[in-house]
Amino acid sequence: DAGVIQSPRHEVTEMGQEVTLRCKPISGHDYLFWYRQTMMRGLELLIYFNNNVPIDDSGMPEDRFSAKMPNASFSTLKIQPSEPRDSAVYFCASSFGTTSESSGANVLTFGAGSRLTVL
Amino acid sequence: AQSVTQLGSHVSVSEGALVLLRCNYSSSVPPYLFWYVQYPNQGLQLLLKYTSAATLVKGINGFEAEFKKSETSFHLTKPSAHMSDAAEYFCAVSWNSGNTPLVFGKGTRLSVIA
Asked: What is the Cα–Cα distance from A105 to A110, expressed in whole angstroms?
């Protein structure tokens, strides 16, 4: 498997423009997570899905952010309109869910990230 | 709110010296604990995980971590640092055996001096 694939790797845009980040999780994984990484706040969970259904979006900063997962192999994170404070690295991660005591909580596999710069 | 604290945003060690990166969590419920490593311009990779099977956990690249319930700690160690260990290290915690999302610490940047 090629791992979690994110695109684009780098995006530079101007304030007010729409930004769409894409993620292809590992085949067979049923959980997908979107995280944002900044120097000030570290890694923050934005939203996560289970079997394509959003479970918790309480980390989404505001209505300008939206995420979808139309099928098991694709998810998008959209920012409209974008602002300079949205500049960050956005990570997608996926996992295979389990409640087995022998394996414990799920292990996340991260993509390489999408570095967003909003001017 | 449950939280993870990594003491020291930057740690610098000499090559061959002991590496100690500290992680403490806040909870009375036994957690599931992880250490991830992030190399420049890459995503996070799993170093090791604790899932209650043993308090001393061995991971990749010679790293290990010990779960100490009484101290609510899960510090990461390596006996002898190598230049290739220079990276950012994140402690993460989950408080259920199911798939509740991980809560990450703010990270510790490890520098290794030749």
From this structure: 16
Interchain pair A45, B101: CB under 8 A: yes
Taking only the tens place, the pLDDT of each residue in A39-84 is 888 899 999 999 999 999 999 988 999 999 999 999 999 999 999 9
Q: What is the pLDDT of residues A2-29, one digit of tens each?
A: 799 999 999 999 999 999 999 999 998 9
Beta bridge partners of B14: B113
Q: Which of A99, A106, A109 to mutate to test the interface with B (most CBs of B within 10 A)?
A: A106
The alpha carbon of residue A71 and the mean position of all alpha carbons in its chain are separated, in whole angstroms, by 15
Tokens of A58: 């309480």
Alpha-carbon dihedral sign for residues B45, A96, B2, A87: positive
User: Is B98 in Cβ contact with A99 (below 8 Å)?
Assistant: yes
Contacts of A54 (CB under 8 A, 6+ apart): A47, A48, A67, A69
Among A47, A108, A109, A114, the residue to mutate for chain B (most B Cβ within 10 A): A108
Helix (H, G, I), strand (E, B) or coil at A73: coil
3-state DSSP assignment of residue B15: coil
Find the CB nearest B99 among A31, A42, A109.
A31
- Count CB atoms within 10 A of the CB of residue B106: 16
Closest to A15 in 3D by CA, of A113, A118, A111: A118
